[in-house]
Protein: Potassium transporter
Amino acid sequence: MTASLQDVVAWLKRELNFFRVHLLFFLIVPLISAVIFWAANGRFHIPFIDALFLCYSALTVTGLSTINLSTCTAFQQAILFFLMCIGNVTIVAWVMVLIRKRYFRQHLQDRHDKERFRTRVTKKLLRFAHFNGSQGPQILVNGNDTQDPTSPGAIRINPADGIGAALVAGGGTEIGLGLALAKIPSPIDTSGHLSPMRNSQQSDRANLANGRSILSDDEVQSPTSLRESMEIPEAGIVANAHSFTSSPRSAAMPLQYPISPTSHSVRFVALPQLRQRPGVPTPRRQRTMIMPPTKSDTLDANELGMRGKDQGLGGFPGPIQVSAKLAHRFCPELYARLEKLLRSDGDKGMKWLQKEFENLIVGRNSNFNTDELDDEDLEKLGGLEYRALRLLSYLVFFYFVGTQLIAFTLIAPWLATTHQYDDIFDAQPRLVNKPWFVAFQVVGAYTGGGMSLVDSGMVPFQQAYLMLFSMIFAILAGNHGLPIFLRLSIWILTKFVQDGSTADQTLHFLLDHPRRCFLYLFPSHVTWFLTATLVFFTAIEWASFIVLDIGLAVTQSLPVGARVVAGLFQSFAVRASGFAIVSLSSLAPSFQFLCIIMMYIAVYPVALSIRSTNVYEEQSLGVFELPPEDEDEEPELGEGQGSRRERIGKYFGWHLRRQVAYDIWWLVCGIFLICVIERTKIMDDNNAPWFNLFRIVFELVSAFGGIGLTLGIPTENFAFSGAFGPLSKLVVIVIMILYLLSKKATLPMPMLKVEG
Structure:
């Protein structure tokens, strides 16, 4: 039984990685939660398919609901509350920080243990390597039958032991030079000890003691000249003394000559200078880039295909180019400021770090090349990054709790003291406690769950301005504003610590190299890009809400101020939480279509920013080849390249990989399946005003984008999905899970590849 369990554990460690664990968590936890949720049914019975739907919707923070949540028991509501908390992107990213911090600490501990073990072993070996007058250490070399292995202070060295044993033997002399183990004319006397040095060897020893080379520059340029200078017909091993450090990258350099089994001796020789500081480990390899073949940069601008009219839209500028030219012409100062703002400022972050670590090479996206760092600098740099991770492990958690606590503190006391909305709570099927309602509402806003214990959502609170602005803050803090607010918080903390202190260095490390530490923390220029994107999309939605819905009763019934605030709230909720402050089905079709577009593209600004700044995407191999520019082109499959079946399979596979890469196909398949399943309801003329293809598309885009907006049902307050049959609800659940798969691009590659 124990052996079988060990086999299972070994299989899991071999097959699981972070993404698989991540996916299994979002598959299994809702199943277990749904069973508990269904078993906790109260006066209002909830079918298991709806319990399953709600649990998946809560954990994926989609927010669609097929029932009125006010009919749930308090325990069932607590289950949904808990699922929204643990499924939030902040918690997922925080767990990744904790995992990385644990492995980082374990790595440092293992390194420290190995160093201590190496030190203990070296000390024990060096006890036998000591000075013996002017003759140096007594070293025995196997290969001579006359050697006396019992001589006091003698050290036995076999040729098979290699350079490490010879280094330990010579370590007592404290000569930090290279070492050559080679066959030479036997200088060993009959006692098995090193014979007295000849005159030339004595001068060599004097040169070594003064740090000078015993060979000329010409003689040390190649192993051949080295062997010739020592009159060695067959050479052994030559190593660089600087490479003998605790760094795992250090290595000896074996010369490809056989070692003779006859008598040997040991000589200390100076090796060529290697343009490096003493104690700096020699890199095992240098980074080599094999660039793909490129076209000549000196192409004629008048050549066919290179002319202006052959580019883009026939040479005509697109909307972005037109906007840039207009801004440059009419607002040159603003254009210059924005251009400077969007330009990468990565060099600023490198200056202070490279002052601390002169040999550190900071590459693209803060990819550190530490080959030239010695052990002390490596440990110092590792300690700095570990402190940054440790700070983040506290900061992110306090950010998660603190931002929601601010919103709760603003809303709860006000709502508890006002009686303006008492009749709304009294009208619910179950009595809803006000503080519990506020907590559920704030968590729904922060996580993007968008669920509400009041069946009509935010519609009754259209003029509750304190509540609306507090929830806008929660929506921003937990969704699209998370990278912005988190970086702002770290920047503010730098103003309260002493310049140059450990805390200051840790905070600036997070600001200068954020993507080494946290998934949703970006460099300055990327953060400004996200800010501009957030403002741009919000402005479009806000203006569209006001302009496109002019003359409609649902908006004209509101005072001007309430209408403006409602539009602002809805513009933030469309791409994040899914709360509706008005009946979306009563708004203009043009605004509904705009909501579909915004829900679909909601995840892309952050996801693309993650991909473009992913330090973990850099190749870790010393030699790698960049993918060719035309790797997406159709493969060349000639008639002689394999059988017809193989060529057809490769061609079909190439097309399939390209098409499946577009996640919209999953959405299209979901819509198609629901149209097949719900054919009767769609074709029923009585349902035509509300059960139609447009609403199906709206609902599935909302599920696929993880938003939770819905056009609803005329007779109920829950989502349009509540009108689906059980099989269609399962399709929507799959679409919500595919939303997680579409966010796979937001996980760093080591987390996808790291073995369990």
Remarks:
- Residues 134 and 196 are 10 Å apart (CA to CA).
- The chain is about 50% helix and 5% strand.
- Strands lie at 139-141, 155-157, 178-182, 237-239, 253-254, 265-269, 288-290, 361-362, 368-369, 623-625.
- Residues 375-417 form the longest helix (43 residues).
